[in-house]
Write a structure and sequence with these properties.
The complex is a heterodimer. Chain A is an all-alpha fold. Helices cover 73% and strands 1% of the residues of chain A. Chain A contains twelve helices and two strands, in the order ααααββαααααααα. Chain B is an alpha+beta fold. The chains are: A mainly alpha, B alpha+beta.
């Protein structure tokens, strides 16, 4: 097992390097010149064009813009010495770059939205898992019943209709017809809180509708998946044996069938786990929540590429580590699957 | 449901008692009849009613968006500030019954109409709610109590004249539409007799029988000054969108305002010199003059065909101007319209064109025309309204939905084809070569499939698309979607090839000495095709969803080119959701319906192709 994890970690590093290099070179396709951008406002202070040009070239050298792409990439990663030739100062040293739009270091910009996103996603993950798994099991046990057929139709709607349309419909129902939730934002504008608890409650109140929409959007695929996995395992011979032994139906379903249905479900949780990160781009934009997805959107819209690149790296790492975790949990859930071969 | 009950159970019992059971299979061969796998699939597929329903709806939507754009042509530069955010409906020329045969004056506005009947009562019809707060149908109490003789409609305000010479203004009055000038107040005290009342974009005008012209309203945007020397000589005024032109008592036409320098409206045609003008009319940017011998001259900005005056067989009696078109009443009572015909403004009814009706008066609004006959009938032609309303730039939602559907479906279809080609090729190679090639391809597909889709597509669209025009960006989106979504197909094809390799027919083919390459692409792939079809159908829905999501976020196909995604761009605020519901309900509904139908078809196909999945 340890060897396997080590091998996978090596694989992650390799893939991360490839992906990050591709992304970095993609960004270098954009015609931009930070040296000129920095020098342009001071143009008047130079006596003649030649002096300006000399200063410009010096600045380019100083910023390392004349180096080849690979060197610049390695420098950005923190594997090559910085322009002063001595220290390392890159991604691996914790320097995620400087956000041109926010005029702050990326690491400082990211902290707040990141906590918001995790806050929202924890709730929606718990809600979605808490609803879909019992629902899927119930539908599988009562296959082709009235309830099952209704659920099939509703879940079909859930995964066919884009999440922003679901969001608009829910906004209409909850914010305009019933006026229960606010339309936008993550906190009451201009509010000052008496205590941390009040702040927490206010935040909770604002994210309730996004969480509901997010949960509803992810219900469809997951419920169907749980249902089909359960049906598959309920049709196995060992279920018949268990029933023949006279075990209680509860034990048959939850102990014998459910455990065996878990494996394919875990596979699909991977895709779903990631879609919550990317899906939040849509939800956060629609509801105006300041999360990672919104930050990413703002960064892209304002050509703040160092910020975008950092978030993109975050997404890549999440997906790669997620894949590793799923593979490891395979072995834990199902001893038949030998992951360390 | 093979044992479908027929008739009342007693009858069935009796029938079976005497006649025997006919439900049994008579002929063994009949049941055992051979069918091609394709036939079996088709039969199974068509058995489900829901699938048939979904297929019908999808085919209808598909035909609608495929043929629709030829009928509802898209004009990307289209926008009209007078037609923004109109609700669905065809009520813009719905003259109330009480008005018929009893009309004194009609004031046609941009999207609404006001009329006075013989009893001095005001009626209104059409879309009178201009913005969230302004509704010109909220007529003030004092106006309802007064006896109104004349009424005029501006862009978002109304002006009415009482029989005592009192002027009333309501609607939008925040831009000084209701602030009368000091001259007017003074002259009104002395007593005046108003012969003409006009209103336009945020300003209004009156002409008195003494030949005085008074203008008031928004000074910043409009030319509402009158050059002193012309006062007392003016017979009639014609208002364009922001300017005006006057007809003098001596039969000449003069631009009497202060912004005449370089203004095409001020360059009155030389041909009019020496001729006596009896009537003038104005569109938003052009003026027409009618001479006493029945000739019509048009000048100003005439880019929308206002200048293409038709040949008249008889002299013209009167001319009237809309926003982009003119209407003329001829001596023989026939009516002719010319200019822009986007909303059918110039499609004069056949009866009026032939002069079969006795016309008493003609009123022309922005895009609407009203002709009142002497026996009280009201004939209308022009813009009735919009079936699905308009958006915030005054564009017809129906046109945009139809054209947006075409774009969304094209993009979805082409990206699925790209994804399938890549997937089949790589999957086939992986399954065929195995070993290192397989390992490499599967690793690549894992990486591509593992990356979060939407952010990655956004980044590609933003970085590569920054230098592309709208059309190139559409191709870019197709390629990006195709290149990012081939992994599922690739895995499917590979797994199927690995599974099919163990089949007897492949062993047989191998035994006959057929090459491995031929076996994979000629023997195995056709067997995978049905499964491929299922995955293509489901992918089609997914690609459409992704495209629309990207467009919704602003990283897909850029505005003004509509797609089902970017039609909903900007719909996520409470004002739009509540007040302008038609702007999001219709695109959302048709798109939702379409994707649900495609997914239902895909599920039905899968059930038909893979009988095992039926049990699930």
């Amino acid at each position: 097992m340890g060897k396997y994890i080590l091998k996978r970690c090596g694989y992650i590093v390799l893939v991360f390097m490839i992906v990050s290099f591709l992304m970095f070179s993609l960004y270098n396709l954009i015609p931009s010149d930070p040296a000129r951008a920095e020098l342009e406002p001071m143009r008047q202070s130079f006596k003649n064009p030649a002096e300006y040009e000399a200063r410009y070239q010096a600045l380019r050298e100083e910023m390392g813009l004349n180096d080849p792409l690979v060197v610049r990439y390695l420098r950005w990663m923190g594997l090559w010495t910085d322009t002063d030739g001595k220290s390392f100062n890159g991604l691996l040293e914790g320097n995620f770059g400087y956000s041109n739009y926010y005029k702050r270091n990326v690491i400082d910009v990211i902290v707040d939205p990141m906590s918001n996103t995790i806050f929202i996603n924890i709730f929606s993950t718990i809600a979605a898992l808490g609803i879909t798994i019992p629902l899927g099991i119930f539908c599988a046990v009562r296959k082709n019943g009235k309830f099952d057929q209704t659920t099939q139709v509703v879940t079909m709607l859930g995964y066919s209709i884009p999440v922003y349309i679901i969001a608009l419909v829910f906004m209409f129902i909850f914010c305009i017809v019933f006026r229960i939730f606010p339309v936008m934002g993550i906190k009451t504008a201009g509010a000052t809180y008496a205590s941390g608890w009040d702040e927490f409650v206010d935040k909770l109140y604002h994210i309730t509708l996004p969480v509901i929409v997010m949960t509803f959007g992810s219900l469809g695929g997951m419920t169907r998946y749980v249902r089909s996995a359960m049906i598959e395992s309920l049709s196995m011979d060992y279920i018949r044996t268990a029933r023949a032994k006279g075990l209680r139906e509860k034990v048959v379903i939850y102990s014998h069938a459910w455990r065996n249905a878990l494996l394919p479900i875990i596979t699909s949780i991977l895709g779903w786990f990631l879609s919550i990160f990317s899906g939040s781009v849509v939800i956060e934009n629609t509801f105006g929540l300041s999360g990672m997805g919104r930050l990413y959107w703002i960064g892209l819209n304002n050509n703040d590429f160092e910020l975008v690149l950092a978030i993109q790296m975050f997404y890549s790492i999440v997906s790669l580590v997620g894949a590793l975790l799923i593979d490891i949990s395979y072995g834990l859930v199902d001893p038949r699957v030998r992951v360390d071969k | 449901m093979a044992s479908k009950k027929k008739g009342f159970f007693l009858f069935r019992w009796i029938k079976r008692m005497f006649l025997g059971n006919h439900n049994e299979v008579v002929d063994l061969l009949q049941e055992e009849q051979m069918q091609t796998p394709f036939k079996t699939m088709a039969k199974k597929f068509l058995k489900k009613k829901t699938v048939i329903f979904a297929l019908t709806v999808f085919v209808l939507i598909f035909a609608f968006v495929l043929i629709g754009p030829y009928y509802w042509k898209l004009d990307l530069s289209e926008q009209d500030s007078t037609l923004t955010n109109l609700p669905p409906g065809y009520n813009m020329m719905a003259v109330p019954k009480e008005m018929k045969g009893n009309a004194v004056d009609i004031a046609p506005g941009g999207t609404f109409g006001f009329g006075i009947d013989g009893n001095g009562k005001i009626h209104s019809w059409g879309t009178t709610r201009i913005t969230e707060k302004i509704d010109v149908a909220d007529i003030p109490e004092e106006v309802l109590n007064a006896k109104i003789t004349k009424i005029a409609a501006g862009f978002d305000h109304m002006v009415a004249l009482g029989d005592d010479g009192q002027l009333y203004v309501w609607g939008n009055t925040r831009l000084q539409q209701g602030n009368f000038t000091s001259d007017m107040k003074k002259d009104q005290k002395d007593g005046w007799n108003i012969i003409q009342l006009e209103a336009s974009t945020q300003f209004s005008a009156i002409v008195t029988d003494e030949g005085n012209l008074y203008l008031w309203g928004n000074k910043n945007q409009n030319d509402i000054n009158v050059t002193k020397k012309y006062q007392g000589k003016i017979a009639k005024v014609a208002l364009t969108a922001n300017h005006y032109v006057s007809l003098m008592k001596d039969g000449t036409v003069v631009y009497t305002g202060s912004k005449g320098k370089g203004n095409p409206l001020a360059s009155v045609p030389k041909a009019l010199k020496g001729k006596t003008v009896v009537d003038i009319a104005a569109t938003s940017s052009a003026v027409a003059a009618l001479t006493d011998n029945g000739e019509v001259y048009v000048w100003g900005t005439t880019v929308r065909g206002e200048g293409e005056v038709p040949e008249f067989s008889v002299p013209v009696k009167g001319i009237y101007g809309g926003r982009y078109h003119f209407t003329a009443l001829l001596e023989d009572n026939s009516v002719v319209s010319w200019g822009n015909n986007k909303y059918g403004q110039t499609n004069v009814p056949e009866k009026l064109l032939q002069g079969e009706e006795e016309i008493a008066s003609v009123y022309v609004g922005n895009h609407q025309n009203y002709a009142i006959t002497t026996d009280g009938d009201v004939h209308t032609w022009g813009l009735k309204g919009f079936l699905l309303g308009t958006d915030d730039l005054g564009r017809d939602m129906l046109t945009r939905i139809v054209n947006g559907g075409q774009v969304t479906m094209t993009v979805g279809a082409i990206s699925v084809v790209i994804a399938t080609v890549i997937g089949v090729l790589l999957g086939g190679l992986a399954g065929y070569f195995g070993g290192k090639v397989d390992l490499l391809i599967m690793r690549i597909s894992e990486i591509v499939g593992g990356l979060p889709f939407i952010p990655f597509a956004m980044i590609l669209s933003a970085v590569i698309g920054s230098r592309l025009d709208a059309n190139q960006k559409m191709y870019l989106i197709m390629v990006v979607l195709g290149v990012l979504s081939w992994t599922g197909t690739c895995r499917l094809v590979r797994a199927q090839i690995l599974a099919q390799r163990e089949m007897e027919y492949v062993t047989a083919a191998k035994a006959m000495g057929i090459k491995e390459k031929v076996i994979v692409f000629r023997h195995i792939l056709p067997n995978v095709f049905s499964l491929l079809l299922v995955s293509m159908t489901l992918d089609f829905a997914t690609c459409m969803l992704t495209e629309s999501t990207l467009s919704y976020l602003g990283f897909g196909i850029p505005l003004p080119q509509p797609t089902w995604g970017n039609l909903l761009d900007g719909a996520n605020n409470s004002v739009v959701i509540q007040q302008y519901w038609w702007r999001w309900v219709f695109p959302a509904a048709i798109f939702g319906l379409c994707t649900v139908c495609i997914n239902m078809i895909g599920d039905g196909l899968r059930d038909a192709v893979d009988p095992k999945s039926n049990e699930r």
